[in-house]
Amino acid sequence: MKQNPITFSRDTKRPFHSKYRPTHFDEIVGQEHIISYFKNVILNERISFAYLFIGKHGVGKTTMSRIIAKALNCSQPYNGGACNKCVNCINISLGKSFDVHEINAALNTGVENIRHIIEKIQLSSVHSPYKICIIDEVHMLSLNAFNALLKVLEEPPKNVVFILATTEIKKIPNTIISRCHKLFFLPVDKMSLASSISKIVWIEKGNITNKALLHILNCSEGSLRDAINLVDMLMINDSSITESNCSFLSTHIPYSVSNLFFSHLVSGNIFSTLQISLYIQNKKWLEDSLLTQIQKMLENEIVNSSSSSLKSQHLISLWQLLSKYHSYNSCSTSIFSSFLFELTNVVSKFSTSKNSNTFFKKKKVPSFIKIDDIYIC
Ligand SMILES: [Zn+2]
C-alpha cells in the first residue's frame, strides 16, 4: 500500500485537521485519480480555465485546489508538483499571494462578492504565471452572482484559472457546469482513512483499539476531515481511544453491534435481533445508521451468494425491506417499530419454509456471544 507522509508539526495547539492538512499532492489520500490527472495537465501544459470539483464534504476539494494553485505557480516545480519552498509556494501556503484568490460562497453569496474577485483577476499577475480564483461551496451563490460568473467564464481573461468546489452539483446552473472540466472526488476508502488516523494517533503518542478505529471509520463515512476531527476531540481527554470512550461522540451504531445484528438476522434468530434493537433504542443510537450498515452488509452477502439459491432469495427479501425503510427521510421510533414488525414477518416466513434449515444451520451464531461482550472493549 502506498505510504502517504504526514507532515509533523510541533504546534500542539492547532486543530488536527489544520495541523495535518496536506501541502503536496503526495500527501493527499483517496483521490489518486485526480492527482494523476492534474500532474499530467501541468506537465503537458494543458491547463483549462475552469474546473469544477464535486464531492462530499471533507474529502479534500479545498486542499486540492490550494495544492494545484501552488503547482501552477511554483517557480521550481518537480514532477508536476510544487516545491513548497519558493516564494510563490510559501505565499500561497500563508494565504498571502496576490495571484491566488479564495472565497467561500456560503459566506459570500452576492453578486458584489463575485464582481470584486473578478476585478482582482483582471489585473495581470504580479509574480506568478497564473491568476487563480478558488470558489468554495459555489452552489451557494445567488442567481445574479452566477450570471456575473458566467460572463467571465464565457470570455475568460488570459492565464486565469477558476477552481469551483461543491457538494451539491444539482444547485449549479448548467450554463456554468458546461464551461468547466468536472472532477468527481470519491469518499475516502476505509484503508486510507485507517492509515491516516493511525499515523496521526502514533505521531500524537496515543493509541487506538481496532474496534474504536472501525467505529470512527463508520461514523466518518468517507470524510477524512470528519475522521480527523473525531480523533482530535477524543485525544483532548485521553490519549487512549477505545470503542466505549468514543461512542459518545456520535449517535451512529458501532460496527460490532450492527455486525452482531446482521449475523442473527441472516441466521433467522429474530429473538436476538429484537434484543439488539432494544439495546440500540436504549442507547439512543440512530436507527438510520443500523439500516444503512445492514443494507451494505446484505449487498455484500448477495453478491457472494448464488443467484438462484434459497439463501439469495431470503437476502433479497431482507434487502427490499431495508430499501423500503431506508427511503424515508428519517427513521423515527414508530417507523423503526414498523420495520421490526415487518422484519419479523419476513424472517418467520422464511424460517418456516421448506429447506430453510439448510441455510440457517450453516449460519448459526454461537449462543455464548452476548452484545456487551462484543461492544465493550
Ligand atoms: Zn514552489
From TrEMBL:
GO terms for biological process: DNA-templated DNA replication. Transmembrane segments: none annotated. GO terms for cellular component: chloroplast; DNA polymerase III complex. Residues 47-189 form the AAA+ ATPase domain. It is found in: Plastid, Chloroplast. Pfam families: DNA_pol3_delta2. Keywords: DNA-directed DNA polymerase, Nucleotidyltransferase, Plastid, Transferase. It catalyses: DNA(n) + a 2'-deoxyribonucleoside 5'-triphosphate = DNA(n+1) + diphosphate. Its EC number is 2.7.7.7. The keyword Transmembrane helix does not apply. One of its GO terms (molecular function) is ATP binding. PANTHER family: PROTEIN STICHEL-LIKE 2, REPLICATION FACTOR C / DNA POLYMERASE III GAMMA-TAU SUBUNIT. This is DNA-directed DNA polymerase. It comes from Teleaulax amphioxeia.
